[in-house]
Every structure is written in C-alpha cells, then in structure tokens.
C-alpha cells in the first residue's frame, strides 16, 4: 500500500507564535503526516507576545513532553498564581484574579451562592480568604497543587512568567531536533492557483521559491499572507478597547518576588509588572488620544522597582481580529490573526488554542472546507470571550479621568451586559464548553470591580445558617494553616529551577 505523501506546511515568521506552531506540529502531528518548514529573517524583529501566561501553557508544554524545570531554567521563568489589579474599579482598591477556584461546593450548592448567602447572614470574611491561589500569592509563597482531587490544595493551578524570546529559542531547538527545517530569509511575494486562489508558493528575497500545501502566517501585525494575499477582513474592536500603544522596558529586579503579575490602572491605561528570575518586565498600555507618548514614557519610568535596563520600546496596535483567520489554505496565528491587549495574559493562550485547534482539525489533501469553518467558529468564540472579559475591567469603574468616564458610559456588547446582569441579580455565572475564563475568573473580576450579587441560587437556602458558617470558616482556616507552611516563592525557585541572573532585552506581556 502506498504511503500518503506528507502535507508540506510552511510557516511564515518565527517568534513565539511561529515556534509554538512549529513545535506543536512536529511533536503532535508528526513527520508521516506533515513536513514543517519555518521561514524567518533575523533582520525582522518580533513583538514578543508575552512574558506572563495562563495555566493552559503548562498543558501545552506537557503535551510536547517538555521538562518543566529545564524549560524554566532556559527561559529564566518564575511561577504565576494570579494577576493583581490595582486601582481598577476605584483608586486605592486591589484584588487578585486567581488561577483556581474559590472554596468548594457544599451539597451541590456552588460556592459563590454560599458566599452570597453568607454575606446576607452578616459574615464579613472577604472572598479572597476562600481562594488557595490568592492566599498563597499574597504571602509570596508557592508549592505545587495536590493530585488529590478531594484536597483543598487541588483547587488551584499555576502558570509562568518567562522571557518570550528565550521561550521561542527553546522551542526552535526543540522543533529542529524533531525535524523542523528553518530557512533564513524574507518573503517578498506569494503565488496563488488561478482556479482556487490557494497559495502554492512563496518567493524569498534571495529568489528561492518555497512550495507548500498549507501556509501558516505568523508574520505579526503585518499579516503578510492572511491579510495581503488572502484579503481576510479585519474586524476592529477599538470602540470598546481604545488602548492603541504601549511602551515596554525591563528594569533590575527589586522589590517583592511576587508569584503573580501586577496590573496597575493609570489615567490613560494601565501598567504591567512581571517578575522574572533575572529582571522585571514593565510596560504602559495606553490610549494615545488621552495621553502623549512623552507623558506615557515619563509615567512608566517613574513607576519602576529598579533601574531601567534599556530605553522604553514603543509598540502600536489595534484591538480586533480577522473574521476568517483560516482562509483557503492559509491560517493566521498570533498577531496575524488578531490582537487583544495583554491585560489578562491571553496572547500566548490565543496562539496555543489556535495551534491545538489546527492539530485537531488538521487537513488532508482532500481539503474539506468544513475544517476551516469549524476552526474559524472556535476562534471567534475564543476572541469574543476574551474581548468581553477585558471590557469588563474597564467598564465597571468609578474613576473620574476622561478615559475611565468614557469606558464606564459606553455601550458594551450585549453578551457582556447579559453576564453582568445575571450575576448582579442572583449570582449566576455561565459555564461554557468552549472559550476562555471559567466562572471563578468572572467571580474574581466582577466582585473585584465592585459588582456584587443582590441575590443567590435558592438552593443555598436548603442549608441552615450554622452549616454555611461552619463550612466557610473551615475552608478559610484550612487554607490559612496550609499556606503558612509553604516555602516562599523565592526559595522554591532557588531549589527547583534557579539560574544566575543576567541582563536580557525587554519583553512584552501576554
């Protein structure tokens, strides 16, 4: 029996997007199904989609068989349990969005309804006290979650802060060891079949012609193939997310070695702080219609923990996505597909889910158009769920600066309005099969931005007050006692994956 000829996959662009795509394909699709070639130019810089990640990145690394401690040493990584939001809903307020659950259900009653009823009963213990991840993060501690699903210590997960450039380099080595072919060069043009419009080859600046069956565009904002060649339409979301610029700068590591990312709301946007082993990544994401570039740079440089290690690097962008990121035989992944500001560390996740969806729907030479339709449907869900979650942070505020007044008074997507009202009315949080952010994430941000439920699921009334009080006190006390004996984040890193610090170029968060 004749063996099928492997599909020729050509990836345009490197960076995190390109090498995550390449590594995923060579490891999980295999050379019998696809040959993978990546074209990039050392002369073209990468944006670097992130240093702060979500817990799903561990699933990706695990699927590839990557050793965690080795990966963390190679990328100078630290652990991440949550994202802290300072001054968001109102100036002076701070809350954490944890990676994990709040409390545990009791007799089938979801925890947020128990907590809402407890508030009505007069209990004043803050919601944070019932989150293993938050209590651990606040105390600057870390340990791995328990494998025992009955244990409270199993109710959290973790992600990483890492150097995105080093992660891309790590995945390049990983991919090349498994058959990835890298070609140095700049793509200058693409040829399309006259009958189908599919891309048949790309031509490099050197004159070399590279043929392929499936082309993946990881060229960044430029969208070299998906935009210029396939004319995939861009849908702008700037009316809801007006921040259009960022300045990124690394500084010497100083201050607390936090196992969480920090986002501080400022007058025209927000500032990130991401602690790595060897430095701290910082940046100011802002709306240029509300502040000048010079003012933004001064604000950023005045808010660093330590001495700046470089000049601020400017970035320009626009919130939105391609309406069809899989068009004919071209797939946009990463910034070529869409952009949402890195407020919730979603950029690398959106690359990851695109790669995993592609692997699940990987085509054959029969070119079933239904695969592209399903891929686009799934990616639409991902982008829209993230979009709504980001808008929530801006919309639910009581600040009085012009940007924040505008965001509070603007009309938001109907899907977000429905979520807010369902929660405000009776504490209801929808759980969807597809898309990012589970009910615990929504609970953290809604309550953190001062949206609290007026009611709760009446199933909570099936429990008497003494039972609710006892269960909630037991949960918070068990968490507090167990966290007190955890090692500090710094000590855990030192024993598990420490590497002496060196200076590196700045990065941009996810």
Automatic annotation (TrEMBL):
InterPro entries: FAD/NAD-bd_sf (IPR036188), Flavin-dep_Halogenase_NPB (IPR050816), Flavin_halogenase (IPR006905), Trp_halogen (IPR033856). One of its GO terms (molecular function) is monooxygenase activity. 7-chloro-L-tryptophan binds at residue 80. Signal peptide: none annotated. Keywords: FAD, Flavoprotein, Nucleotide-binding. FAD binds at residues 187, 335, 348. L-tryptophan binds at residue 344. The active site is at residue 80. This is Tryptophan halogenase PrnA.
